[in-house]
Amino acid sequence: MISAVMPTYARADLAFERGEGVWLYGTNGRRYLDFGAGIAVNSLGHGHPHLVEALTQQAQRIWHCSNLYRVPGQERFAQRLVDATFADTAFFTNSGVEAWECGAKLVRKYQSATGQPERWRIITATGAFHGRTLSGISASGGEKLTKGFGPLVDGFDHVAWGNLNELRAAITPETAAICVEPVQGEGGIRPATLDYLRALREIADEFGLLLYFDEIQTGFGRTGKLFAHEWAGVAPDVMCIAKGIGSGFPLGACLATEAAAVGMTAGSHGSTYAGNPLAMAVGNAVLDVLLEPGFLDQVDRVARRLWHKLVPLPERYPTLIAEVRGAGLMLGLRAVPPNTDVIAAFREAGLLTVPAADNVIRLLPPLTITDAHVDEAVAIIDRVCADQVAHA
Prior knowledge:
Blueprint lengths: L15 E5 L2 E4 L4 E4 L2 H4 L8 H11 L12 H13 L4 E5 L2 H18 L7 E5 L8 H7 L2 H4 L9 E4 L4 H7 L4 E6 L2 E2 L5 E2 L2 H14 L2 E5 L23 E4 L10 E5 L20 H14 L4 H16 L2 H4 L4 E7 L2 E6 L3 H10 L2 E2 L1 E3 L3 E4 L7 H20 L2
Parallel strand pairs: 3-15, 5-6, 5-7, 7-10, 10-11
Antiparallel strand pairs: 1-2, 2-3, 4-12, 8-9, 11-12, 13-14, 14-17, 16-17
Helix pairs in contact: 2-9, 3-9, 10-13
């Protein structure tokens, strides 16, 4: 008999009653160090006072009014994003995949509006994850996402991750854009090299394509800069963002240059809920914190501390940990045994982590972690690994 909640998730038998900072408190009475952050969502941890205050104050005024009218919070948030990024304009969404879909539509509309409607295909990379709509899984590819959902949406050409020769060979007169994640998250915490990102910009310019970065998981401070592409010193034409943007409140956005958004005129796209006053109050509050002087420098510093403490693990426990990879506070441990078994052992010891492809365990803590939290997490990992080896 099917459960009342559609059984599409392989859930752990664990529920939480409250959160505070980097901690989650289970209904079982135990406290857990949250290095999953709702899959890189709770960027400022749980119950951040500035966010709680912003949401509570807005909830007492107005929740929703639709996009038939001006929304002052949208105007403020959009301007602040424009001021802090490459973009000239923003469209707000309720989720990451909606932001991605907006970007995919924008790419096609740009080519059509500039007299090249035959250019409609988007090149994506193997191992990518762009969400779970039909077009999202079609762009991502991979049997795990697509099996049973065919026929897939046409318009996406997959090339090997990091392979510039294959990418160049895939460009045809129908190609409109290149879309990649600067760090593949679901794909196994695989960072692009900075030279690869720079080359994508050069190739897009050479062939008259739009460069589209998916920074849903990598954005909003996750890698130690506001957005991961900043490390390479290049900018996209289009970018989708979500997850950390609302620190747990459902929110996303599609950012674009004025040139790329030339076709996005009244009626070309829309949403009933997106950009409502509640979401905008939270988004602006998150940005308040991230843009505080020194905040992202602190994220980068703590991330480097975590990285250096994790790097010795493969040599210390070669039968358990094969590799450490990632960028900033988006790190992965490639496991030797099934990653789900190791994740369960970490959870039992009080540390929450997230699975990914390639047998990787993701470490995605709130950006507010301290040195003490890093030390405690690494101590748990070390203790679990030592115990696993002792009982092997």
